[in-house]
Write a structure and sequence with these properties.
By secondary structure, the protein is an alpha/beta fold. It has one domain: Response regulator (Rossmann fold), CATH 3.40.50. It contains five helices and eight strands. The strands form two sheets. It has a six-stranded mixed sheet, sandwiched between helices. A two-stranded antiparallel sheet has the order 2-3. The protein starts with a strand and ends in an 18-residue tail after the last helix.
Length: 163
Amino acid sequence: MGSYSIGALPQTRVKTSSEQVILTGRFMDSRTILLIDADSDSRSLMERYLREQGYRIIVADDGSAGLEAFHKGDIDLVITDLMLPRRSGIAVLEQIKRSHPRVRVIMLSSVDGPAHRALAELLGADDYLRKPITMNRLHDVVRRFAPLRPAPAETTSMVSNAG
């Protein structure tokens, strides 16, 4: 069975009967990215990097868990691998675009076949990136589709005691 977690700092663990979800949040006005990738090393690297950039990250290790997390959260951007257990990245893309056509989806794949790219684009993928991907390239694409909104500036008032 797949799993998903919501991660950033500080960390609070919430347990339900069937799952453990890690809730986090340190940015007042961050965007939420759902990252679906079966490769734990790749997923961890992308999660850590994007979190350091100020994004709130929800991770899933298969397509079914990814869709479950998508329907439970307020997601701004989905990054999904093409090859996933339990439900393919193409199936995830298709279901997300059918129910939420305005949500941006970035497809990742180690396969650079023109047929895969064409199918992903036909189904509404906003971009198709070939693995391995540099973190700078990932960040450029993520910023294009889910730019961080600056947190409201704190206002400070000074009171003078004239007397």
